[in-house]
Specification:
It contains 6 helices and 5 strands; from the N terminus they run E-H-H-E-E-E-E-H-H-H-H. The chain has 142 residues and is an alpha+beta fold. The protein has 2 domains: 103 residues, no CATH class; 31 residues, no CATH class. The structure holds zinc ion.
């Protein structure tokens, strides 16, 4: 299984224009190609994805990030030395779908958790808000 590395970047910073530089398949940006993509497994900073398709099966694509790099592998064994169309579609899907992106994007995850904590604290006990925000901002409670 070939692995492609996007060095010195992460899902928080990666743009569609960056992604275009790493693949020969610009068609990955068509929305109908990503709407049926779903994770077989997903956890913080890693997931295995596939897609429901009526055509011949879609391979399994693994996307992980650590040490300021994004790693993508695909079982199609594309020999091009760039991201295959499956990898490009899956990474694009992660960028576009917040429900998947939140597993890879620290900034998005932080903002969502902070908003949820603020709402909960506000409703239950407004006097706790400064403590909540302080703890979350310092990553002590997450
Ligand atoms: Zn592939």
């Amino acid at each position: 299984m070939n692995e492609y590395v996007l060095s010195d970047t992460n899902i928080s910073n990666l743009s569609v224009f960056d992604l275009l530089k790493h693949t020969a398949h610009a068609g990955f940006m068509e929305q109908e190609n990503i709407q049926d993509i779903y994770p077989l497994t997903i956890e913080l900073n890693t997931g295995i994805f596939t897609r429901d398709t009526s055509a011949a099966g879609f391979p399994e694509v693994t996307v992980s990030q650590f040490n300021d790099s994004v790693y993508a592998s695909c079982s199609c064994n594309n020999p091009s030395g760039k991201l295959c169309v499956h990898q490009a579609e899956v990474i694009y899907c992660i960028l576009e779908q917040n429900s998947y992106r939140i597993f890879f994007d620290n900034k998005l995850r932080h903002a969502k958790l902070l908003a949820a904590a603020r709402n909960t604290a506000w409703r239950r006990n407004p006097t706790l808000i400064p403590t909540f925000i302080c703890d979350i901002t310092a990553d002590r409670s997450i």
